[in-house]
Write a structure and sequence with these properties.
Blueprint: H1 7-21, E1 30-37, E2 42-49, E3 60-61, H2 66-79, H3 89-94, H4 96-99, E4 103-109, E5 115-120, H5 128-133, H6 145-150, H7 164-170, H8 186-198, H9 202-214, E6 220-221, E7 243-245, E8 251-253, E9 282-284, H10 286-294, H11 314-321, H12 327-330, E10 335-336, E11 347-348, E12 359-360, E13 365-366, E14 385-389, E15 393-398, E16 403-408, E17 411-412, H13 417-433
Parallel strand pairs: 7-17
Antiparallel strand pairs: 1-2, 1-16, 3-9, 4-5, 6-9, 7-8, 10-11, 12-13, 13-14, 14-15, 15-16
Helix pairs in contact: 1-13, 2-8
Length: about 425
Amino acid sequence: MAPSFAPEAAASLRTYIDSKTSGDKQSFPGAIIHIVDSKNNTVFSHASGGSIPLSPQTLFTTHSLTKIIGAVIFLQLVEKNLVSLDDATVIEKLLPELAAKKILTGYKEGANSEKEWIFEDRTGDITPRMLMSHTYGGGHSYFNPLLHEYLKDGWETRNEANDKWKTLLDSPLLWQPGTHTNYGQGFDWLAVLIERLTKRALPDVLQENLFAPLGLTSTGFEDQYGVAMISKPEHKGRFWPRSMKTEEGGFVPIDPEVLQQKEWPTRYPNGEYHVFPLGTGLVSTAEDLVRIFSILLPQNAGVDPVSGTRILAPSSVREITSPQLPGPLRNACRNVPSAVPSAFYPADLEAAHVDPEGSFGLGCGVQGAERVLKSGKKGRSKGSFYWYGAANTEFWVDGERGLVVLCEGNYFPWNEGEWVDFVAGVEGRVYEGLGA
């Protein structure tokens, strides 16, 4: 049965959203909340605040919500028998740069206080599944302090946001594969693997296999990767620039109205430079994203509810949205530390009010038990899958309730307390309105 949201609950939720995005003491610069059911029917939608008029059709950078879209594309290649999830030989063959890496275990102070980095040889295999479940042994320059320290000399270009390929090449591993969970660069390596498997540029693969079949024209790579997306004439005035929250509580824009295209070395497949990431990189809308995510609901099992187009086999949907971590790894470390505290606050996914029994799926988290919020209200169901984008964007897909929820705040620092509390407030009110 399709979820039914009580009218009085919808009115109360709209008032709550407006109270946080307007007035002299805004908690954040704006918000888009868009909720659909398994048929892509709108259950609730409200946009408030913003430096431009906001709606479900507003363009914004998706950041790490790109990851689950990367998982969809890779599982399509698995279905075509081009690759398998657990084949370590494909890493040795097609990602020799990754296969050759050693593990950075730390450093000691040498002469003149220079760091002498300590490495050990890799002993375990790396598989595509590990790249997507954060267990392959790598880190991320924004979130791992040791890797950030290692890349500090020249970090303005050796980071995932400015030059993904150079950062991948320069980054060592940090753990033996399969022994630790750590939020890392796995999906950016997956992007390279997809290009080398298909011998095509990544935007073409995404367009042919996902965006075009769904008729999506508002989702694609950011202009900085050398393609025109936000700068298309039909998108004029639709892009919502990101902001940074100041210590005084104000908001300073950090984007121009149109993101600028960047000149890159000759890109794959015409050259050897892999420009396009899958850890981040896409621009989209709330409307497009919830439609893509709705395909992964168990009620749809890989079929687009709007067009009837099959995007994935049911078995691929189960792979993406099922817990991937064995017990020792699941309980080892699912927190997200910070190496750049001015822009990213650390997050503990194991916290009691978040997901203490959860796991990683492929490009997402998987809720291990029904969420109980700090307020005591019920939240998303066990088995819901979810993830976050760096500019305070997040989604969850609740298969038990047939529900897709997207919350977009579009500002830094990520995981800032007022945003976290706000989303929890939205979540509690949503499930209360559904008769949880």
